């Protein structure tokens, strides 16, 4: 019996983990046992920790690289480990700069093809910034192509963060998506919430009966991706990110900062910073807080994190030395 796989794609900070948490909750409510493969660009696993705090699903993590390029070989191994735990379905959350078609392609490798089947690709868009990406990243053709592929390959497109923009912007985004994908179901969402029954009910029926559900999609035919054996290095043209760099900033355990200091730091770096997330110690808080910088906004959430605090920064053309120096300076 093949395990159904749902791939969550979308640019950095668009709302993939938010969607994953909702999907995990709804899977559990239906009595399904999900497995999760999380891929993060940074060495530190922020999203996995967020999940641990909310759920008890089997989680495999692939850190410090993107499964569609540097971590391609490890993708198969991690999925095989998950399969051993006999989940009813597997969610793969990609990095924000991954091309989902390459993952779909990787799932056709011998060793995976017999044991899992790709069901759906869901792409989450950040309504506040999607229309700007072409101009923001105009000098990075690869990234622009990857963002387009995320829309093209999707079965579902969530136009997320709908609370932050006008309805005319949402209309424009929908038109923009339709230029690249005339088949996907497009839904406007807030906090990635949408009706998951069409996705999960057939999987539930499949898990119960073992019969192939007719609504399941068979592996998409991947016309645009050249098939490269997993042991080969990806060619430069198959890389999904180029000028993106990830830097982990340690937060001295004896120090505390204010929200305002951290928000100012994020805002001063916002030209190059696409995303930042991590656990920080605040002057007025007894416990570490989860800080998320996405779409040029900083979000705060309480957390149960008890390790050494840190912040992972993902940026384009990031001057790592200057970033680290200015970060250190915050604590002097
Ligand atoms: N206002 C608003 N905030 C949202 C919405 N969806 C998600 N967020 C917030 O945006 C931030 C990023 O959301 P995530 O779900 O972590 O985004 P992601 O795509 O997983 O991010 P990466 O893993 O870094 O690529 C979090 O602080 C979310 O709470 C939304 O619809 N509206």
Describe the structure concisely for a colleague.
Keywords: Chaperone, Hydrolase, Nucleotide-binding. This protein is of the alpha/beta class and 332 residues long.
List keywords for this structure.
single chain; 332 residues; alpha/beta; Rossmann fold; seven-stranded parallel sheet; five-stranded antiparallel sheet; 12 strands; globular; binds guanosine-5'-triphosphate; Zinc-reg_GTPase_activator; GTP-binding protein; P-loop_NTPase; chaperone
What do you see in this structure?
Residues 244-331 form the CobW C-terminal domain. The chain has 332 residues and is α/β, with parallel strands linked by helices. Helices cover 32% and strands 23% of the residues. It folds into 2 domains: 3-238, P-loop containing nucleotide triphosphate hydrolases (Rossmann fold, 3-Layer(aba) Sandwich); 244-330, CobW-like, C-terminal domain (Hypothetical Protein Yjia, Chain: A,domain 2, 2-Layer Sandwich). The protein has 10 helices and 12 strands. The protein has a 7-stranded parallel sheet with strand order 3-2-4-1-5-6-7, with helices on both faces. Strands 8-12-9-10-11 form a 5-stranded antiparallel sheet, with helices on one face. The structure holds guanosine-5'-triphosphate (GTP). Guanosine-5'-triphosphate binds next to helix 1 and strand 10.
């Amino acid at each position: 019996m093949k395990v159904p796989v749902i791939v969550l794609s979308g640019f950095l900070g668009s709302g993939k983990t938010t969607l994953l948490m909702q999907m995990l909750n709804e899977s559990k409510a239906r009595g399904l046992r999900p497995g999760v493969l999380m891929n993060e660009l940074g060495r530190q696993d922020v999203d996995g920790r967020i999940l641990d705090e909310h759920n008890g699903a089997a989680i495999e993590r692939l850190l410090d690289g993107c499964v569609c390029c540097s971590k391609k070989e490890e993708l198969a191994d991690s999925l095989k480990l998950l399969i051993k735990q006999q989940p009813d379905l597997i969610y793969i959350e990609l990095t924000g700069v991954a091309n989902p078609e390459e993952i779909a392609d990787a799932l056709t490798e011998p060793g995976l093809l017999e044991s899992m089947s790709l069901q759906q690709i869901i792409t989450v868009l950040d309504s506040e910034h999607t229309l700007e990406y072409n101009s923001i990243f105009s000098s990075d053709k690869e990234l622009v192509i990857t963002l387009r592929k995320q829309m093209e390959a999707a079965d579902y497109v969530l136009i997320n963060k709908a609370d932050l923009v006008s309805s005319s912007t949402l209309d424009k985004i929908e038109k923009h998506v339709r230029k690249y994908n005339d088949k996907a179901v497009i839904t406007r969402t807030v906090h990635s919430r949408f009706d998951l029954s069409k996705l999960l009910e057939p999987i539930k029926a499949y898990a119960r009966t073992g019969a192939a559900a007719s609504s399941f999609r068979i592996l998409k035919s991947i016309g645009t991706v050249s098939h490269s054996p997993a042991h080969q290095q990806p060619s430069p043209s198959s890389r999904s990110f180029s000028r993106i760099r990830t830097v982990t900033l340690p937060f001295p355990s004896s120090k505390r900062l204010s929200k305002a200091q951290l928000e100012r730091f994020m805002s001063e770096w916002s030209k190059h910073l696409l995303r930042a997330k991590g656990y920080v110690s605040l002057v007025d808080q007894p416990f570490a807080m989860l800080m998320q910088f996405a779409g040029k906004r900083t979000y705060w959430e309480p957390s149960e994190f008890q390790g050494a605090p840190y912040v992972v920064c993902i940026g384009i053309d990031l001057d790592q030395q200057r970033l680290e120096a200015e970060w250190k300076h915050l604590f002097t």
